[in-house]
Amino acid sequence: MKPVAFHPLARLLHWLMAVLILAMLFIGVSMVNDLSPRHTWLVSLHKAIGLALLLLVLVRIGLRLLLPQPPLPNDLPSLQRRAAKASHLLLYGLMLAMPLLGWGMLSAGGYPLPLQLPALLPHDLQLYALLRQAHGWLAYVLFAIVLVHLGAALVHGLVRRDGVLRSMWPGPLRKD
Amino acid sequence: MTTPLHGRPRALRLAAIGLGLTALAAGFAYTAGWIGNERLTPKRIIDTFEAQAGHHPGYRKNHAKGLCVSGYFQSSGEAAGLSSARVFSQARVPVIGRFAIGGANPHSPDASVPTRSLALQLSSDDGQQWRTGMNTPPVLAVGTPEAFYQQVLAMTPDPATGKPDPSRLQAFFAAHPESAAFRQWAKDYKASDSFANSSYNSINAFALIDAEGKARYVRWSLLPQTPFAALPTQVEDNDYLQHDLRQRLSLGPLRWTLQLTLAAAGDAVNDPSQPWPGQRPTVDAGTLVIDQVDAAQQGACRDLNFDPLILPTGIKPSADPILAARSAAYSESFNRRSREAAQLGARP
Q: From start to end of chain B, where are the E strands?
Protein backbone atom coordinates (compact mmCIF):
# COMPACT_ATOMS: atom_id res chain seq x y z
CA MET A 1 0.00 0.00 0.00
CA LYS A 2 1.47 3.37 -1.06
CA PRO A 3 1.35 6.16 1.56
CA VAL A 4 -0.51 9.43 0.82
CA ALA A 5 2.26 11.53 2.32
CA PHE A 6 6.02 11.39 2.80
CA HIS A 7 7.34 9.93 6.04
CA PRO A 8 7.60 12.62 8.77
CA LEU A 9 11.38 12.20 8.84
CA ALA A 10 11.57 12.75 5.07
CA ARG A 11 9.41 15.86 5.43
CA LEU A 12 11.55 17.18 8.27
CA LEU A 13 14.73 16.68 6.22
CA HIS A 14 13.13 18.25 3.14
CA TRP A 15 12.19 21.48 4.89
CA LEU A 16 15.38 21.72 6.91
CA MET A 17 17.46 21.32 3.77
CA ALA A 18 15.18 23.66 1.79
CA VAL A 19 15.89 26.47 4.25
CA LEU A 20 19.63 25.70 4.37
CA ILE A 21 20.00 25.38 0.59
CA LEU A 22 18.21 28.64 -0.10
CA ALA A 23 20.35 30.33 2.56
CA MET A 24 23.51 28.82 1.00
CA LEU A 25 22.63 30.12 -2.46
CA PHE A 26 22.12 33.65 -1.13
CA ILE A 27 25.23 33.49 1.09
CA GLY A 28 27.28 32.19 -1.84
CA VAL A 29 26.43 34.92 -4.34
CA SER A 30 26.64 37.55 -1.62
CA MET A 31 30.07 36.61 -0.22
CA VAL A 32 31.90 36.60 -3.55
CA ASN A 33 30.80 40.21 -4.12
CA ASP A 34 31.51 41.44 -0.64
CA LEU A 35 34.79 42.81 0.66
CA SER A 36 33.58 44.01 4.06
CA PRO A 37 34.29 42.04 7.28
CA ARG A 38 30.96 40.35 6.56
CA HIS A 39 32.77 38.48 3.74
CA THR A 40 34.93 36.63 6.25
CA TRP A 41 31.96 35.64 8.35
CA LEU A 42 29.88 34.57 5.33
CA VAL A 43 32.68 32.34 4.01
CA SER A 44 32.94 30.51 7.37
CA LEU A 45 29.18 30.14 7.51
CA HIS A 46 29.11 28.86 3.92
CA LYS A 47 31.66 26.15 4.73
CA ALA A 48 29.86 25.09 7.92
CA ILE A 49 26.42 24.87 6.32
CA GLY A 50 27.93 23.14 3.29
CA LEU A 51 29.38 20.41 5.46
CA ALA A 52 26.07 20.02 7.32
CA LEU A 53 24.22 19.76 4.00
CA LEU A 54 26.59 17.04 2.80
CA LEU A 55 25.78 14.92 5.86
CA LEU A 56 22.05 15.66 5.55
CA VAL A 57 21.90 14.71 1.86
CA LEU A 58 23.57 11.36 2.56
CA VAL A 59 20.92 10.58 5.20
CA ARG A 60 18.26 11.81 2.82
CA ILE A 61 19.39 9.62 -0.06
CA GLY A 62 19.34 6.66 2.34
CA LEU A 63 15.80 7.46 3.47
CA ARG A 64 14.66 7.95 -0.11
CA LEU A 65 15.87 4.46 -0.97
CA LEU A 66 14.42 2.88 2.18
CA LEU A 67 11.01 4.53 2.58
CA PRO A 68 8.04 4.22 0.21
CA GLN A 69 7.05 7.39 -1.69
CA PRO A 70 3.51 8.66 -2.20
CA PRO A 71 2.58 8.31 -5.90
CA LEU A 72 1.98 11.30 -8.18
CA PRO A 73 -1.71 11.91 -9.02
CA ASN A 74 -3.09 9.54 -11.66
CA ASP A 75 -4.38 12.37 -13.86
CA LEU A 76 -0.96 14.02 -14.16
CA PRO A 77 0.08 14.17 -17.86
CA SER A 78 3.04 11.93 -18.62
CA LEU A 79 5.20 14.86 -19.71
CA GLN A 80 4.76 16.52 -16.30
CA ARG A 81 5.33 13.19 -14.63
CA ARG A 82 8.64 12.83 -16.43
CA ALA A 83 9.56 16.47 -15.71
CA ALA A 84 8.89 15.84 -12.02
CA LYS A 85 11.09 12.73 -11.97
CA ALA A 86 13.89 14.44 -13.92
CA SER A 87 13.87 17.58 -11.75
CA HIS A 88 13.95 15.51 -8.55
CA LEU A 89 16.87 13.49 -9.86
CA LEU A 90 18.68 16.72 -10.78
CA LEU A 91 17.96 18.18 -7.34
CA TYR A 92 19.41 15.12 -5.62
CA GLY A 93 22.42 15.19 -7.94
CA LEU A 94 23.12 18.86 -7.24
CA MET A 95 22.53 18.53 -3.49
CA LEU A 96 25.23 15.87 -3.45
CA ALA A 97 27.54 17.53 -5.99
CA MET A 98 27.65 21.05 -4.55
CA PRO A 99 29.22 20.28 -1.15
CA LEU A 100 31.57 17.74 -2.74
CA LEU A 101 32.65 20.35 -5.31
CA GLY A 102 33.20 22.83 -2.49
CA TRP A 103 35.34 20.35 -0.56
CA GLY A 104 37.14 19.29 -3.74
CA MET A 105 37.88 22.83 -4.90
CA LEU A 106 39.30 23.87 -1.52
CA SER A 107 41.53 20.78 -1.68
CA ALA A 108 42.70 21.53 -5.23
CA GLY A 109 43.26 25.20 -4.33
CA GLY A 110 45.65 24.23 -1.53
CA TYR A 111 43.39 25.77 1.12
CA PRO A 112 43.23 24.42 4.66
CA LEU A 113 39.95 22.58 5.25
CA PRO A 114 37.49 23.16 8.08
CA LEU A 115 37.82 20.70 11.00
CA GLN A 116 41.11 19.61 9.39
CA LEU A 117 39.20 17.35 7.01
CA PRO A 118 41.43 15.43 4.62
CA ALA A 119 41.92 16.80 1.10
CA LEU A 120 39.62 15.12 -1.42
CA LEU A 121 41.92 15.91 -4.34
CA PRO A 122 45.57 16.87 -4.94
CA HIS A 123 46.69 20.53 -4.92
CA ASP A 124 46.40 21.51 -8.59
CA LEU A 125 45.68 25.04 -9.84
CA GLN A 126 44.03 24.03 -13.12
CA LEU A 127 41.84 21.48 -11.36
CA TYR A 128 40.92 24.19 -8.87
CA ALA A 129 39.87 26.49 -11.72
CA LEU A 130 37.60 23.82 -13.16
CA LEU A 131 35.96 22.93 -9.84
CA ARG A 132 35.61 26.55 -8.72
CA GLN A 133 33.81 27.45 -11.94
CA ALA A 134 31.63 24.34 -11.79
CA HIS A 135 30.69 25.21 -8.18
CA GLY A 136 29.61 28.69 -9.28
CA TRP A 137 27.71 27.71 -12.43
CA LEU A 138 25.96 24.74 -10.85
CA ALA A 139 24.81 27.05 -8.06
CA TYR A 140 22.90 29.06 -10.66
CA VAL A 141 21.47 25.85 -12.12
CA LEU A 142 20.45 24.76 -8.61
CA PHE A 143 18.76 28.08 -7.94
CA ALA A 144 16.85 27.80 -11.25
CA ILE A 145 15.73 24.24 -10.43
CA VAL A 146 14.68 25.34 -6.94
CA LEU A 147 12.51 28.06 -8.52
CA VAL A 148 10.92 25.52 -10.89
CA HIS A 149 10.40 23.08 -8.00
CA LEU A 150 8.83 25.79 -5.83
CA GLY A 151 6.61 26.98 -8.70
CA ALA A 152 5.44 23.46 -9.46
CA ALA A 153 4.72 22.77 -5.78
CA LEU A 154 2.63 25.93 -5.53
CA VAL A 155 0.69 25.09 -8.71
CA HIS A 156 -0.01 21.63 -7.27
CA GLY A 157 -1.11 23.11 -3.95
CA LEU A 158 -2.99 26.22 -5.01
CA VAL A 159 -4.22 25.54 -8.55
CA ARG A 160 -4.45 21.79 -9.21
CA ARG A 161 -5.12 21.12 -5.50
CA ASP A 162 -4.23 17.48 -6.04
CA GLY A 163 -2.59 16.61 -2.71
CA VAL A 164 1.01 16.74 -3.96
CA LEU A 165 1.97 19.78 -1.85
CA ARG A 166 0.16 18.29 1.14
CA SER A 167 2.22 15.10 0.86
CA MET A 168 5.30 17.18 1.76
CA TRP A 169 3.54 19.59 4.16
CA PRO A 170 5.78 20.48 7.12
CA GLY A 171 3.00 20.40 9.77
CA PRO A 172 0.70 17.60 10.92
CA LEU A 173 -1.54 16.37 8.10
CA ARG A 174 -5.26 17.12 8.20
CA LYS A 175 -7.60 14.21 7.70
CA ASP A 176 -10.09 14.83 4.88
CA MET B 1 -9.38 16.21 -2.06
CA THR B 2 -10.52 19.56 -3.48
CA THR B 3 -11.18 20.12 -7.15
CA PRO B 4 -8.78 21.97 -9.46
CA LEU B 5 -9.41 25.67 -10.06
CA HIS B 6 -10.57 27.06 -13.39
CA GLY B 7 -11.12 30.47 -14.97
CA ARG B 8 -10.42 33.69 -13.11
CA PRO B 9 -9.41 32.25 -9.71
CA ARG B 10 -6.94 29.98 -11.50
CA ALA B 11 -5.45 32.87 -13.46
CA LEU B 12 -5.16 34.98 -10.30
CA ARG B 13 -3.37 32.25 -8.38
CA LEU B 14 -1.02 31.51 -11.26
CA ALA B 15 -0.20 35.22 -11.45
CA ALA B 16 0.45 35.33 -7.69
CA ILE B 17 2.80 32.33 -7.94
CA GLY B 18 4.61 33.95 -10.88
CA LEU B 19 4.98 37.16 -8.91
CA GLY B 20 6.34 35.34 -5.88
CA LEU B 21 8.95 33.48 -7.94
CA THR B 22 9.94 36.69 -9.71
CA ALA B 23 10.41 38.43 -6.35
CA LEU B 24 12.64 35.59 -5.12
CA ALA B 25 14.70 35.67 -8.33
CA ALA B 26 15.01 39.46 -8.08
CA GLY B 27 16.22 39.14 -4.49
CA PHE B 28 18.84 36.66 -5.66
CA ALA B 29 19.93 38.97 -8.49
CA TYR B 30 20.18 41.89 -6.06
CA THR B 31 22.22 39.82 -3.58
CA ALA B 32 24.53 38.77 -6.41
CA GLY B 33 24.98 42.43 -7.41
CA TRP B 34 23.45 41.93 -10.87
CA ILE B 35 20.86 44.65 -10.20
CA GLY B 36 20.89 47.68 -7.92
CA ASN B 37 23.58 50.24 -7.18
CA GLU B 38 27.12 49.54 -8.27
CA ARG B 39 29.10 48.42 -5.22
CA LEU B 40 32.79 48.21 -4.50
CA THR B 41 33.47 44.51 -5.02
CA PRO B 42 36.63 42.38 -5.10
CA LYS B 43 36.06 42.05 -8.83
CA ARG B 44 36.04 45.83 -9.32
CA ILE B 45 39.30 46.26 -7.44
CA ILE B 46 41.04 43.57 -9.49
CA ASP B 47 39.52 44.97 -12.71
CA THR B 48 41.06 48.33 -11.83
CA PHE B 49 44.51 46.78 -11.25
CA GLU B 50 44.27 45.10 -14.64
CA ALA B 51 43.03 48.26 -16.33
CA GLN B 52 46.07 50.16 -15.02
CA ALA B 53 48.87 47.63 -15.37
CA GLY B 54 47.54 45.62 -18.30
CA HIS B 55 46.22 42.08 -18.52
CA HIS B 56 48.91 39.55 -17.64
CA PRO B 57 47.31 36.08 -17.84
CA GLY B 58 48.28 33.64 -15.11
CA TYR B 59 50.02 36.22 -12.90
CA ARG B 60 48.93 37.46 -9.50
CA LYS B 61 46.86 40.59 -9.99
CA ASN B 62 48.96 42.58 -7.55
CA HIS B 63 52.56 42.09 -6.43
CA ALA B 64 52.72 40.23 -9.74
CA LYS B 65 56.50 39.99 -9.96
CA GLY B 66 58.11 37.73 -7.41
CA LEU B 67 59.89 34.49 -6.73
CA CYS B 68 59.30 31.43 -4.60
CA VAL B 69 61.54 30.52 -1.67
CA SER B 70 61.47 27.99 1.12
CA GLY B 71 62.97 27.51 4.55
CA TYR B 72 61.81 27.17 8.12
CA PHE B 73 60.82 29.11 11.22
CA GLN B 74 62.68 28.47 14.48
CA SER B 75 60.42 29.40 17.33
CA SER B 76 62.11 31.02 20.35
CA GLY B 77 59.26 29.90 22.63
CA GLU B 78 58.93 33.46 23.93
CA ALA B 79 55.53 34.00 22.29
CA ALA B 80 54.12 30.64 23.43
CA GLY B 81 52.61 32.31 26.49
CA LEU B 82 50.82 34.85 24.29
CA SER B 83 49.33 32.49 21.72
CA SER B 84 48.41 28.83 21.75
CA ALA B 85 49.35 28.58 18.05
CA ARG B 86 51.75 25.66 17.61
CA VAL B 87 54.12 27.74 15.44
CA PHE B 88 55.21 29.64 18.57
CA SER B 89 56.34 26.49 20.39
CA GLN B 90 57.42 24.08 17.65
CA ALA B 91 61.21 24.10 17.27
CA ARG B 92 61.26 24.08 13.47
CA VAL B 93 58.26 24.88 11.28
CA PRO B 94 58.53 24.35 7.48
CA VAL B 95 57.95 27.54 5.48
CA ILE B 96 57.06 28.28 1.87
CA GLY B 97 57.48 31.92 0.90
CA ARG B 98 57.38 34.46 -1.88
CA PHE B 99 59.35 37.68 -2.24
CA ALA B 100 57.75 40.22 -4.56
CA ILE B 101 57.72 43.84 -5.55
CA GLY B 102 54.53 45.92 -5.41
CA GLY B 103 52.37 46.61 -8.43
CA ALA B 104 50.35 44.60 -10.90
CA ASN B 105 52.92 44.58 -13.70
CA PRO B 106 55.01 41.36 -13.67
CA HIS B 107 57.68 43.00 -15.85
CA SER B 108 58.46 46.11 -13.77
CA PRO B 109 62.16 46.69 -13.06
CA ASP B 110 62.89 45.54 -9.48
CA ALA B 111 64.51 48.85 -8.53
CA SER B 112 61.55 50.94 -9.73
CA VAL B 113 59.13 49.96 -6.98
CA PRO B 114 59.55 51.12 -3.36
CA THR B 115 57.13 48.56 -1.90
CA ARG B 116 58.42 45.02 -1.45
CA SER B 117 56.62 42.12 0.09
CA LEU B 118 57.18 38.76 1.68
CA ALA B 119 54.35 36.24 1.88
CA LEU B 120 54.72 33.13 4.02
CA GLN B 121 52.97 29.89 4.73
CA LEU B 122 53.99 28.21 7.97
CA SER B 123 52.77 24.61 8.32
CA SER B 124 52.95 23.42 11.92
CA ASP B 125 53.00 19.76 12.98
CA ASP B 126 49.43 19.93 14.33
CA GLY B 127 48.23 20.17 10.71
CA GLN B 128 47.46 23.88 10.89
CA GLN B 129 48.57 26.65 8.56
CA TRP B 130 49.44 30.28 9.02
CA ARG B 131 49.61 32.45 5.93
CA THR B 132 50.72 36.04 6.11
CA GLY B 133 51.44 38.70 3.51
CA MET B 134 53.80 41.42 4.71
CA ASN B 135 54.98 44.66 3.10
CA THR B 136 57.89 47.02 3.59
CA PRO B 137 55.74 50.00 4.69
CA PRO B 138 54.58 49.63 8.31
CA VAL B 139 51.25 51.36 7.60
CA LEU B 140 48.89 51.90 4.70
CA ALA B 141 47.90 55.36 3.49
CA VAL B 142 44.24 54.78 4.31
CA GLY B 143 42.09 52.64 6.58
CA THR B 144 39.07 51.59 4.51
CA PRO B 145 38.63 49.65 1.25
CA GLU B 146 36.70 52.59 -0.27
CA ALA B 147 39.54 55.03 0.42
CA PHE B 148 42.05 52.43 -0.83
CA TYR B 149 40.09 52.21 -4.08
CA GLN B 150 40.17 56.01 -4.38
CA GLN B 151 43.94 55.88 -3.82
CA VAL B 152 44.33 53.30 -6.61
CA LEU B 153 42.30 55.54 -8.92
CA ALA B 154 44.38 58.57 -7.95
CA MET B 155 47.51 56.60 -8.90
CA THR B 156 46.22 55.84 -12.43
CA PRO B 157 49.17 56.39 -14.77
CA ASP B 158 48.85 59.41 -17.02
CA PRO B 159 48.97 58.06 -20.61
CA ALA B 160 51.32 60.92 -21.59
CA THR B 161 53.99 60.27 -18.95
CA GLY B 162 53.26 56.71 -17.84
CA LYS B 163 53.38 58.02 -14.25
CA PRO B 164 50.62 59.04 -11.84
CA ASP B 165 49.49 62.64 -12.15
CA PRO B 166 51.18 64.42 -9.18
CA SER B 167 48.36 66.95 -8.76
CA ARG B 168 45.80 64.17 -8.55
CA LEU B 169 47.87 62.31 -5.95
CA GLN B 170 48.36 65.51 -3.99
CA ALA B 171 44.61 66.14 -4.01
CA PHE B 172 44.02 62.58 -2.78
CA PHE B 173 46.47 62.92 0.13
CA ALA B 174 45.05 66.33 1.02
CA ALA B 175 41.59 64.77 1.22
CA HIS B 176 42.98 61.93 3.39
CA PRO B 177 44.89 63.37 6.35
CA GLU B 178 45.00 59.87 7.89
CA SER B 179 47.74 59.17 5.31
CA ALA B 180 50.24 61.34 7.25
CA ALA B 181 52.18 58.38 8.72
CA PHE B 182 52.40 56.66 5.35
CA ARG B 183 53.62 59.86 3.65
CA GLN B 184 56.25 60.31 6.35
CA TRP B 185 57.42 56.72 5.76
CA ALA B 186 57.57 57.32 1.99
CA LYS B 187 59.55 60.53 2.54
CA ASP B 188 62.11 58.90 4.87
CA TYR B 189 62.30 55.58 3.01
CA LYS B 190 65.74 54.57 1.82
CA ALA B 191 65.54 51.55 -0.44
CA SER B 192 67.93 48.76 0.50
CA ASP B 193 69.84 46.77 -2.11
CA SER B 194 68.23 43.43 -1.32
CA PHE B 195 65.14 41.53 -0.29
CA ALA B 196 67.49 40.09 2.35
CA ASN B 197 67.99 43.35 4.27
CA SER B 198 64.42 44.64 4.00
CA SER B 199 61.90 44.63 6.87
CA TYR B 200 58.43 43.30 6.28
CA ASN B 201 55.37 44.33 8.30
CA SER B 202 52.00 42.73 8.88
CA ILE B 203 50.39 46.22 8.57
CA ASN B 204 47.07 44.90 9.91
CA ALA B 205 46.65 43.95 13.55
CA PHE B 206 45.71 40.48 14.75
CA ALA B 207 44.69 39.07 18.12
CA LEU B 208 46.89 36.45 19.77
CA ILE B 209 44.83 34.09 21.90
CA ASP B 210 46.59 32.34 24.79
CA ALA B 211 45.73 28.98 26.32
CA GLU B 212 43.29 30.66 28.73
CA GLY B 213 41.50 32.38 25.84
CA LYS B 214 42.87 35.82 26.67
CA ALA B 215 43.31 38.03 23.58
CA ARG B 216 46.12 40.53 22.97
CA TYR B 217 46.37 42.62 19.83
CA VAL B 218 49.67 42.61 17.95
CA ARG B 219 51.28 43.67 14.72
CA TRP B 220 54.31 41.75 13.57
CA SER B 221 57.47 42.53 11.63
CA LEU B 222 60.26 40.50 10.13
CA LEU B 223 63.47 42.35 10.93
CA PRO B 224 66.45 41.41 8.75
CA GLN B 225 69.60 40.03 10.38
CA THR B 226 71.42 41.03 7.18
CA PRO B 227 72.91 44.54 7.50
CA PHE B 228 71.43 47.42 5.51
CA ALA B 229 73.11 48.65 2.34
CA ALA B 230 71.55 51.29 0.12
CA LEU B 231 70.25 50.49 -3.35
CA PRO B 232 72.72 51.89 -5.93
CA THR B 233 71.42 55.01 -7.66
CA GLN B 234 71.83 53.44 -11.10
CA VAL B 235 70.50 49.91 -11.51
CA GLU B 236 70.66 48.44 -15.02
CA ASP B 237 69.39 44.93 -14.24
CA ASN B 238 65.58 44.60 -14.45
CA ASP B 239 65.69 41.61 -12.11
CA TYR B 240 68.28 43.09 -9.75
CA LEU B 241 66.61 41.92 -6.52
CA GLN B 242 65.94 38.41 -7.82
CA HIS B 243 69.52 37.95 -8.99
CA ASP B 244 70.79 39.36 -5.70
CA LEU B 245 68.66 36.95 -3.68
CA ARG B 246 69.84 33.95 -5.69
CA GLN B 247 73.43 35.04 -5.27
CA ARG B 248 73.06 35.45 -1.49
CA LEU B 249 71.22 32.13 -1.07
CA SER B 250 73.91 30.33 -3.02
CA LEU B 251 76.30 31.43 -0.24
CA GLY B 252 74.07 30.48 2.69
CA PRO B 253 70.71 30.93 4.42
CA LEU B 254 69.21 34.35 5.23
CA ARG B 255 67.58 35.22 8.56
CA TRP B 256 64.93 37.55 9.93
CA THR B 257 63.66 37.99 13.49
CA LEU B 258 59.89 37.73 13.86
CA GLN B 259 59.05 40.54 16.25
CA LEU B 260 55.57 40.93 17.74
CA THR B 261 54.57 44.42 18.88
CA LEU B 262 51.88 44.42 21.58
CA ALA B 263 49.17 47.06 21.43
CA ALA B 264 48.27 49.10 24.49
CA ALA B 265 44.69 50.01 25.34
CA GLY B 266 43.50 52.68 22.93
CA ASP B 267 45.89 51.81 20.09
CA ALA B 268 44.28 51.66 16.66
CA VAL B 269 43.88 47.91 16.14
CA ASN B 270 41.30 48.22 13.35
CA ASP B 271 42.96 50.96 11.32
CA PRO B 272 46.09 50.03 9.33
CA SER B 273 46.81 53.70 8.51
CA GLN B 274 47.50 54.56 12.15
CA PRO B 275 50.90 53.69 13.63
CA TRP B 276 51.10 52.72 17.28
CA PRO B 277 53.21 54.95 19.51
CA GLY B 278 56.83 53.86 19.99
CA GLN B 279 57.89 52.14 23.22
CA ARG B 280 55.27 49.44 22.89
CA PRO B 281 56.52 46.15 24.34
CA THR B 282 57.86 43.68 21.78
CA VAL B 283 58.44 39.95 21.83
CA ASP B 284 60.90 38.13 19.56
CA ALA B 285 58.90 35.07 18.57
CA GLY B 286 61.67 33.35 16.64
CA THR B 287 63.81 33.36 13.53
CA LEU B 288 62.76 32.93 9.93
CA VAL B 289 65.43 31.11 7.94
CA ILE B 290 65.17 31.18 4.13
CA ASP B 291 67.62 28.74 2.61
CA GLN B 292 66.38 27.97 -0.87
CA VAL B 293 65.10 29.79 -3.92
CA ASP B 294 62.92 28.14 -6.56
CA ALA B 295 62.86 29.03 -10.24
CA ALA B 296 61.43 32.52 -10.88
CA GLN B 297 57.63 32.50 -10.46
CA GLN B 298 57.69 28.72 -10.21
CA GLY B 299 57.74 26.46 -7.23
CA ALA B 300 55.37 25.72 -4.42
CA CYS B 301 54.39 29.34 -3.74
CA ARG B 302 52.91 29.88 -7.18
CA ASP B 303 49.72 27.91 -6.64
CA LEU B 304 49.03 29.31 -3.16
CA ASN B 305 46.73 32.15 -2.20
CA PHE B 306 48.52 33.96 0.66
CA ASP B 307 45.19 34.95 2.18
CA PRO B 308 46.08 36.78 5.42
CA LEU B 309 42.98 35.30 7.07
CA ILE B 310 44.30 31.74 6.89
CA LEU B 311 45.27 31.60 10.54
CA PRO B 312 45.94 28.79 13.01
CA THR B 313 44.08 28.40 16.29
CA GLY B 314 45.64 30.96 18.62
CA ILE B 315 45.68 33.83 16.10
CA LYS B 316 42.51 35.69 15.19
CA PRO B 317 41.87 38.56 12.79
CA SER B 318 41.12 42.05 14.04
CA ALA B 319 37.98 43.80 12.80
CA ASP B 320 40.16 45.89 10.43
CA PRO B 321 38.05 46.31 7.26
CA ILE B 322 41.19 46.33 5.07
CA LEU B 323 42.08 42.86 6.33
CA ALA B 324 38.73 41.44 5.21
CA ALA B 325 39.03 43.28 1.89
CA ARG B 326 42.52 41.86 1.31
CA SER B 327 41.18 38.35 1.88
CA ALA B 328 38.29 38.91 -0.54
CA ALA B 329 40.46 40.52 -3.23
CA TYR B 330 43.23 37.89 -2.97
CA SER B 331 40.58 35.25 -3.52
CA GLU B 332 39.32 37.01 -6.66
CA SER B 333 42.90 37.31 -7.95
CA PHE B 334 43.53 33.62 -7.22
CA ASN B 335 40.32 32.55 -8.98
CA ARG B 336 41.08 34.70 -11.98
CA ARG B 337 44.65 33.55 -12.48
CA SER B 338 43.66 29.91 -11.96
CA ARG B 339 41.08 30.28 -14.75
CA GLU B 340 43.72 31.85 -16.97
CA ALA B 341 46.09 29.00 -16.19
CA ALA B 342 43.39 26.47 -17.10
CA GLN B 343 42.16 28.21 -20.25
CA LEU B 344 45.39 29.35 -21.81
CA GLY B 345 47.80 27.00 -20.19
CA ALA B 346 49.21 30.36 -19.05
CA ARG B 347 51.79 29.60 -16.42
CA PRO B 348 54.21 32.37 -15.64
A: 65-75, 93-101, 116-123, 129-135, 200-201, 206-209, 215-224, 254-262, 282-296, 315-317
The chain A residue lying nearest B339, using CA atoms, is A129
pLDDT at B154: 95
**pLDDT of amino acid B157:** 86
Q: Compute the nearest-CA separation of B331 from chain A (Å).
A: 9
Query: Which is nearest to B221 in space by CA: B174, B264, B260, B171?
Result: B260
Domain ranges of chain B: 40-344
Instruction: Tell me how close the Cα of B210 comes to any Cα of chain A, in angstroms.
Output: 20
Nearest to A110 among B4, B303, B309 (CB): B303
pLDDT (tens digit per residue) in B61-102 = 999 999 999 999 999 999 999 999 999 999 999 999 999 999
d(CA A121, CA A102): 11
Distance CA B155, CA B164 (A): 5
Using an 8 Å Cβ cutoff, are B75 and B87 in contact? Answer: yes
Give this complex's ipTM.
0.94
**Residue A159: which of B4, B41, B128 has the nearest Cβ?**
B4
What's the pLDDT at B162? 79
Nearest to A35 by CA among B202, B160, B46, B198: B46
* Best residue of B96, B121, B335 to probe chain A, by most A CBs closer than 10 Å: B335
Kindly indicate the confidence band of residue B161, based on its pLDDT and cuts at 50, 70 and 90.
confident
**Contact state of B338 with A128 under an 8 Å Cβ cutoff:** yes
Q: What share of chain B is helix, strand, coil (3-state, %, to 5)?
A: 30, 25, 45
What fold does the segment set B40-344 form as a domain?
Catalase HpII,  Chain A, domain 1 (2.40.180)
